[in-house]
Amino acid sequence: MYRRTSVQDGRVNGRQTARMEEQRSKIAVVVRDDLAGWQRLNVTAFLVSGIAATYPETIGVEYEDASDVRYLPMFGLPVLVYAADADAIRTAHRKALDRELGMAIYTEELFATGNDVDNRAAVRAVPTEKLALVGIAVHGSRNAVDKTLKGLTLHP
Questions:
Q1: Which residues pair with 56 in a beta bridge?
Q2: How do the domains of the chain map onto residue ranges?
Q3: What DSSP string describes the chain?
Q4: Which of 71, 106, 108, 118 would staple 63 via disulfide (CB 3.0–4.6 Å)?
């Protein structure tokens, strides 16, 4: 589905393919609107890490300032963040599953765990339709992501 690119000496192999991918896809995060501010930020950070880990082609190249200090690369495509209530997140989750979009999830139970092993066990213990979602991140074609999140409002 996606062509992987690699970074060497600050340049992307297949730069044209990477630009085309950037133009055709996007990342979107939906966080529950009743979370505390720090929780929304925390959930967003965790969710987008799943996108970066799974879709390396979404990552641009390193940054470098005028003093030749190098910085880590970031996403090379749009990332939109939405806020929604629990019902709207469940609806978006179902639509994303139906469209087979790449998706990361964050559930209420993950606030009480302290490590990745327990996080995965907490999610594994709950059937899909009963997940207490507090956030999702999706990656896919702009059209599919837009249709999946239609009607949601951007995070303030």
A1: none
A2: 7-154
A3: ------EETTEETTHHHHHHHHHHEEEEEEEETTS-HHHHHHHHHHHHHHHHHH-GGGB---EE-TT--EE---BSS-EEEEEE-HHHHHHHHHHHHHTT-EEEEEEGGGGG--SHHHHHHHHHTS-GGG--EEEEEEEEEHHHHHHHTTT-EE--
A4: 71
Predicted local distance difference test score (pLDDT) of residue 9: 42
- CATH 1.10.10.10 for domain 7-154, yes or no, is no
Residue-wise pLDDT tens digits, 64-93? 999 999 999 999 999 999 999 999 999 999
Q: Which amino acid is at 5?
A: T
